[in-house]
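FAQ
Q: What does a multi-component entry look like?
A: The components come first, one per line:
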Amino acid sequence: MPCNHNNQLCPGPTLNGALTNTCTHCLADFLDSQRSEIKAMLDNHKTAWQMMSSWTKKLVAFIERLYEDQFTTHGCPSDFSFCITGSGARSEACPQSDLDAFIVVPKITQNQKKQWKNINLAVKKRLDDINDSRVKTLRPGKGFVFCTGGLNPLGMVTKKWMERNNRDGLIKKDGIIFDLTNTTSALSGLLEEYYRYPSDPKRNLRKHIVSGLQECAHAFGNPKLHRELVDEVKFVLGQQAIEFGSNTLLSRKRKQGLQAMQVAINDKNFQPPAPYSDIKRVKREFYRAPQFILKGLAWFYDVDEVSSLAQLSMLEEMGKLHPSRVVHFRKAMSEALRVRVASHIITGAEFDKVLSAYVTPNKNQSAWLRLNSEQSAMLEDAANSVRLIIGWANEFASVQGRTHGIRGNPFSEPLLIK
Ligand SMILES: [Zn+2]
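Then the predicted structure of the entire assembly, as tokens:
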């Protein structure tokens, strides 16, 4: 019996058994059914973090099935750990987030390398096809696919990305920046080179990959290989670094922590929106700055947790973040992230912009998510919290860069009630 899409051999949108004959549309149907489960959580007033961690698990399970399917047909080339980075590693992926990932393998032969490449290409193609069959018009070409900027097991970028970033001709013809199905030493070597040669022309290409290596989680395969990489990355980051301000005692990791905060403080994109602005960018204007600042604090105080929530509770437990400030971190992120999940589901794209409650959408905005008045009020409140948090980070960074005096931690002080 053919499936709903009239493909004779396709067993339909169930992922039991081999996927060899499962058609693109049925795979897309399956993913949509997973998204519906997140939609149900949204309707049941689950928190953003509950929805995001649930989605992260679903997407990992899906990718694992796609790989298993390749292994059944072609065999598994070698031992491996499939690692996810970015929002996946933080368990903060949203239903249309793209997937940042790489694979750690032991030392393998050229032939095994070739096998991995073919398998990665096949999975990439399947994801692309599924995405093409679904993504609507808001942001075509982006959705649940491998990272288009090279942080994927192939280390491959899209044509569009190449046109924008390949001014010096550093990227080879096939669009591969660095092979990211690789050994611990090759992967941590990328990190080492990034820090050792500040004027390396390839530095810009490495940047996204480097941040991924520093924030990764084991998804499936052999966790031992991931563990080895994490240890190696820690070793590289633990080395003494160049000065920050006049404070020379900072390790690379601490310096990186402060730099993450500087981004949150200085990058125009990551500032909260002006009060009562018509359009809100829920990821950029609400989530990013608190997330970077938390990550910065976590690195500074050597906290290994990667999810924002886990970092929050660990920093609070260690006395590095006062409970009166923790409240603002939650406020800054929670409703914005719930709205972000909703926007992904409603628009069917990785779409970040939403309309405030009192705005009448124009023709181009008709597909956008429009906030209700309660949500609008909550986001105004959240924007205030983002502003406060950025101010504290500014204080923290200037105190830590000091020559003399005590380098205290303003985040650990109770908030004064005005
Ligand atoms: Zn089908």
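Q: Is there any commentary attached?
A: Sometimes. For this entry: The mean pLDDT is 89.
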